[in-house]
Write the structure tokens for this entry.
Amino acid sequence: MNIALRYLRAKKGHTAVNIISIISVLGVVVTTAALICVLSVFNGFHDLIKDKLSNVDPDIAITATMGKTINDADSVMKVASSIPGVAKVMPVVEDNALAIFADFSMPLKLKGVPKNYSELTGIDSVVVEGDFLLDDGVSRYAVLGVGPAVNLNARPGSLRMLQLYAPQRRGQVDINDPMNAFTEDSVFVSGVFMVQQKNYDNDMVFVPIDLARELFDYTTEATQVEVKLAPGTSESDVMGQLEAQLGASYTVKNRIMQQDASFRLVNMEKWITFLLLAFIMVIATFNVISTLSLLIIEKDESIRTFRSLGATDKQITRIFVTEGWLIALVGAVIGVVVGLVLCLCQQQFGWLKLSANADAVIVQSYPVSVVWTDVMVVFMLVAAVGLVTSFVTSLMMRHRLNK
């Protein structure tokens, strides 16, 4: 080990060996730092999506495993309410409808919720115009996503009512009067919300749950039962109890599972990028192998001296194998430090911007979140690369010593 450390620190006899040695270490440093930074940015986007969706998604959602609706939503709510740690339980009804406002129309997702729904989620915190009001005791109201508000040209305070149409679930269509095949209702517009997620903003509209049930011809049914947890409650414990008591007829999902497609896409991109950078790191190790090859040639006289002093071929080989490990280790340590410093600077100062147009993006700069498991994965990768380097080095030394 001491001899390997001396070879690592000592100035080489040839300028080319010095340059290649520096390039070898820098190659490991740059790729390690890049891995730390890239993985941290993807973690930042993961957290950003989770934070944005937390305003509209419940902590836990219960749906029917088979079919579209929960036929007896009250019994499911009773079971959920009996579990310790559950603060709020509410039914919702969600389905497709057609909206008409003045001369404008569009299909949309209608979500019927209780009037105190803002106590279960933070939907009222993302209302950008008007208020989250569904029923004032006199009239019923709708809260539109920014997409329907723009496409329908509907704004809070308008005296014109929003017309809602849904196809009847029962009966036959009269081709002479096809409008009888639709159930119609109307509401005033009380507010406009914006989550900055297209699956909500583009076509989501909140209405009172009793209106949604009338429109879709439901009575006690719900398409989903939503649960809010008390602060400090274990999500996994509550989910386990819900699954045990409700059985296989119901599916229990946390917030990440509800948006599985979005999170799966981020994770897929994250690890594909990781594999590409890992491939670059493997290529960079060829510089380490080149350095060791030149070092073996340069230290030919020292190798003969070691032999004269009684060193075995195994001991001599171990010196250069350790040298390869040290190059990988030094590069990894420096790379991790550089990567963490860059991540902290990005968190603090936001040097890298997502767009020059501040209104076009959710956040101004790239979000960054360092996860220590990712750091360990990067270290394991560097260790694996060092193992490959050591194996190749041992083969070269055996060939050299057998001459």
Observations:
- The radius of gyration is 32 Å.
- The beta strands are 60-64, 86-101, 104-113, 127-130, 141-145, 162-167, 182-193, 204-208, 224-229, 250-254.
- The first strand starts at residue 60 and ends at 64.
